[in-house]
Amino acid sequence: MDLGLNGKVALVEAASKGLGKASALALAREGARVAICARTAADLEAAAEEIRHETNAEVLAVPADLASAEGIRNVVAATVECYGAVDVLVNNSGGPPPGKFADVTDEDWRQAFELLTLNFVRSVREVLPHMRRKRWGRIIGIQSSSVKQPVAQIDLSNGIRPGIAGLMKAIMPDLARDRITINLVLPGMFLTSRIHPDLAAGGAHIDKAVEEQLAPLAATIPMGRLGDPMELGHVVAFLASEQASYITGAVYQVDGGSIKSNI
Ligand code: NAD
After folding, report:
1. What's the DSSP call for residue 153?
2. What is the pLDDT of residues 151-200, one digit of tens each?
């Protein structure tokens, strides 16, 4: 299936590693021109080079801190300056630190709000004028299964992410008038450095020792394994496609069957 992404401009946030990098790669494979950002320039450039090498796509790497308004403004401005548009936004960030309710301070809550909620608000706000101008756009937010069901040990995620789903739904009708769709994907457990430090390179090939350490986690998932980041990247690319033109205001779990609720 041709996803209609050839030549489209996709900005993928927090994409030096993990799910962001996989999403950028999936979009680049479909012919999109890609801008990626993360804080550490060297990691980011290495990811950009990997994506260029594999796909021959144009990849712009813009170092930016997604917990700051200035960082987000800069990365959107750099993307527009380079490519003249932002057609697709993949909103993403590093995850909040683990911690149970009793261990989390007010400052932890403030930082998580900045990294998750304000990152979503600011990123959407910055790209919207460019999408409205073209009367076309795709916004895909990478959130977490905590939108649907609390996750163990990360109460910052449990407290904050469901509100982002509520906000996404609330703003969706106004965006739809300009043919801009907005959806969320909810990862379950994926083979990234978020889950294990040795998985920074991403991909499904993990060494035996790491596999053994992750075996108890894998056993809790109906599919019997953690996800390959590309399994999420492909869903992101589809939601960015022409074919996904009638999907908006939706949340898609990509979780190997982990979420227990009916819907
Ligand atoms: P990862 O650690 O592999 O990658 C995170 C990326 O975010 C890296 O590129 C890092 O440089 C970047 N980043 C972190 N903080 C940043 C900041 N302040 N500014 C700019 N870039 C920043 O993580 P991942 O597994 O790819 O997770 C991505 C998102 O998905 C996170 O929000 C995470 O909580 C969520 N998530 C992941 C899983 C999973 O199993 N991997 C499950 C549920 C939710």
Report:
1. T
2. 999 999 999 999 999 999 999 999 999 999 999 999 999 999 999 998 87
How far apart are the C-alpha atoms of 70 and 88, rounded to whole Å?
20
By the 8 A CB rule, do 252 and 232 touch?
no
What pTM was computed for the model?
0.98
Total of domains in the chain:
1
Give the span between the Cα atoms of 144 and 155, in whole angstroms.
Answer: 12
CB 142 within 8 A of CB 158: no
106-136 pLDDT per residue, tens: 999 999 999 999 999 999 999 999 999 999 9
Residues at CB less than 6 angstroms from ligand 1: 14-20, 38-39, 64-67, 92-95, 115, 142, 144, 187, 189-190, 192-195
Classify residue 143: in a domain, yes or no.
Answer: yes
Q: pLDDT tens for residues 71-88?
A: 999 999 999 999 999 999
Full residue range of the structural domain in which residue 60 is found: 9-188+227-253
3-state DSSP helix/strand/coil % of the chain, to nearest 5: 50, 15, 35
Residue 81 placed within a domain: yes
Atom of ligand 1 nearest to the CA of 64: 20
- 128 falls within a domain: yes
Distance 4 CA to ligand 1 centre (A): 27
Does residue 129 form part of some domain? Answer: yes
CATH number at 124 reads: 3.40.50.720
- The atom of ligand 1 lying closest to the CA of 15 is 9
